[in-house]
Design brief:
Blueprint lengths: L8 H7 L4 E2 L9 H5 L5 E5 L5 H9 L4 E5 L3 H13 L5 E4 L17 E5 L17 H8 L7 E6 L2 H13 L2 E7 L14 H8 L5 E7 L17 H19 L4 E6 L3 H14 L4 E5 L8 H11 L2 E4 L3 H9 L9 H22 L2 E3 L5 H5 L21 H10 L4 H4 L12 H5 L3 H10 L5 H14 L14
Parallel strand pairs: 1-4, 2-3, 2-5, 3-4, 5-6, 9-10, 9-12, 10-11
Antiparallel strand pairs: 6-8, 7-8
């Protein structure tokens, strides 16, 4: 049934102009600038009246959402809901899903939601289905290895068609259910159509599809080859086992737990390699820490032994004892906490027959985002040759909660994310590290300068060699 034309639609659209992107093609590779943060971006293709995207944006304020809808009379209602909710992490636009690669760079979005898409019931209309192989191939040009498509529908034939289509196009299928609302899935946000079908007693079909790239492993846009997260994860697990066999047989892995992706993935890798009974987490809040729940979520998810050491007194004690004629500069305030925390991790490690895990990744090390003798220290380093993008992919393979994999790292001083401070995204940096390719010369120059200036952090301490 065709929707009745809304009165004053144009005027209502204009009243939502701050969240309505009229020329989406102009923001390819720049969507993060619109949100003014470095948070991950998820998109919904066909947002309807907006119940889903508004609900998700409320539920996950640290994720940015872009809602796509071609019908103005529908999208205006969705935008008005977002405005009423005073959301700052959702934008709306009109674009054709067939041209999705014209609006988003590879790796710019991390998840696609397809909710109750038109089933196009006739066989001759199959190519118009949003899960047809032609569309899936286009989605792959925006999603990285390990990123997800979440799909739900009331149409059994479309669901069966989609199962085959995802499998044939090299997506891994997870969390398949033929009756969503009688399943164990707890993260559902109900759409307008979904509520109608529920009221009628109809089952909802749902699946998650993980992008595994192209089977022929051809290069994709930007020259970046497919990253095999399963293979690298298994190799890293074996490497950790080998390290402990040679450097502390029977010892425990001790990991400083921040609740972010790096410590989460490191702890999960150690648990798989050694068994959870040989992994110890150290939680180190500074007084009352707002995100400490993420650390608790990780240790409970993995089932590992953990200790909490509040570092506030130690950090404040050092700062309070500074001579009055010696000014404490901002870098001192930034770097002292990770150095105190690493001292605490080593104290726990030495008290429980441990080896300390370094949790730095290649991207952060590349531009110096690690504190020497702080989080840059450790006895073994599982992630130091893996980019942020690759670490996230491994985190998903390990089955870590999404909020841990996607938790944006912050500087701990002014609350800004790493990407805010860097002035570029990790997706841009990772592509440059792996391929040498970058679109903006100013960004290239900044990355190169930061890399040169921070190389000393990755090298052994210079030492004098006397001629004796």
């Amino acid at each position: 049934m065709r929707m009745r034309k809304k009165k004053n639609c144009a005027e209502r659209m204009e009243r939502c102009s701050e969240i309505w992107i009229k020329n989406p093609q102009e923001y390819k590779g720049k969507w993060g600038e619109l949100f003014k943060n470095g948070n991950p971006i998820h998109i919904e293709i066909g947002c309807g009246k907006g119940n889903f995207v508004v609900g998700m944006a409320k539920k996950y304020p640290d994720i940015n959402f872009i809602a796509i809808e071609k019908v103005e009379d529908v999208i205006v209602m969705a935008m008005e809901k977002a405005v009423a909710a005073e959301l700052e992490n959702v934008l709306f636009t009109d674009m054709d899903a067939e041209r999705i690669e014209d609006f988003f760079e590879y790796g710019e979005i991390e998840r696609i939601y397809l909710n109750f898409s038109d089933p196009w019931k006739k066989n001759k209309q199959a190519k118009r289905r949003l899960t047809h192989k032609n569309f899936l191939d286009k989605y792959k040009k925006t999603l990285r290895y390990g990123d997800y498509i979440w799909f739900k529908t009331d149409n059994r034939k479309l669901f069966e068609f989609s199962l085959n289509s995802f499998a044939q196009e090299n997506f891994k299928l997870e969390n398949i259910t033929l009756d969503l609302h009688n399943s164990d899935f707890k993260d559902n946000v109900v759409t307008e159509y979904e509520q109608r079908f529920l009221d009628e007693g109809m089952p909802i079909y749902r699946l998650e599809a993980v992008n595994l790239g192209w089977e022929d492993n051809r290069k994709i846009k930007g020259g970046l080859k497919m990253f095999n997260a399963n293979k690298v994860k298994d190799e890293c697990v074996e490497w950790i086992r080998d390290f402990f066999d040679k450097n502390g047989k029977g010892c425990n892995a001790v990991v400083g737990i921040s609740g972010g992706k790096d410590s989460s993935v490191t702890a999960a890798l150690c648990a798989e390699a050694l068994g959870k009974e040989r992994v110890i987490g150290v939680l180190m809040p500074y007084g009352e820490q707002s995100d400490i729940d993420c650390s608790h979520l990780l240790v409970n998810h993995l089932g590992i032994k953990n200790y909490t050491i509040n570092v506030k007194d130690a950090i404040d004690g050092v700062l309070n004892q500074f001579p009055k004629d010696l000014e404490i500069n901002p870098q001192t305030r930034i770097n002292l906490p990770p150095r105190i925390r690493m001292a605490a991790v080593y104290a726990v490690s030495q008290s429980c027959n441990g080896r300390v895990a370094n949790t730095c990744n290649l991207s952060e090390d590349w531009v110096g985002y690690a504190t020497r003798y702080g989080d840059g220290a450790g006895d073994f380093s599982p992630l130091s040759m893996l980019t942020v993008t690759e670490v996230k992919a491994i985190g998903r393979i390990l089955g870590l909660p999404e909020e841990l994999v996607e938790k944006p790292p912050i500087d701990g001083l002014c609350g800004k994310t790493d990407e805010d401070n860097l002035g570029f995204t990790y997706a841009v940096l990772d592509r440059y590290i792996r391929t040498g390719e970058i679109d903006d010369e100013k960004t290239k120059a900044r990355i190169d300068e930061m890399h040169r200036n921070n190389l000393f952090k990755l090298q052994l301490m210079p030492h004098f060699e006397p001629e004796i």
